[in-house]
């Protein structure tokens, strides 16, 4: 069973941003032998001040990595770490990077608002309410103030209708901004009244093959 974790790092001690910009995998230091972490687990990498945000989603590809197996990433340390033959690391492969600006849904304040207890000062497994938020950061309830209509989930289809100039686009843009939805997750489509089901789903039409025999193609 896959477990989910948050690993914190001090950007002033280890430049995780530069490391993941140049490497696909890094080795995360662990005090003692890793306990409870297994290959395939998902780790969210939290960078402390000045970011105070989760910046990366990663996957554990190897546990209990020894000093002689460690990826050469010493240049990302601000101070050379103390390592001996008993030092152990967890290898993380970058799956996704999150923005460092206000569009990032995983700031410490937002995590606290959605179930995180205390500060992120050590490696911790996550579950329950906070994990639900991390997995679905844009599914929180929305409120359309004009009529106080509760939108139960932003992923569901919601139709705003009315004659031109009544504020439909304005309202949608406001909801997008209020919920810090990244621009790359938003697109606009125009549907013409003459569009049919087959324009979206497809259709089977008659054709002629190389031997002039009738056939049908999708």
TrEMBL record:
InterPro entries found in the cross-reference section: Methyl-DNA_Rec/Restrict_Enz, P-loop_NTPase
Gene3D superfamilies attached to this UniProt entry: P-loop containing nucleotide triphosphate hydrolases
Protein name from the UniProt record: ATPase dynein-related AAA domain-containing protein
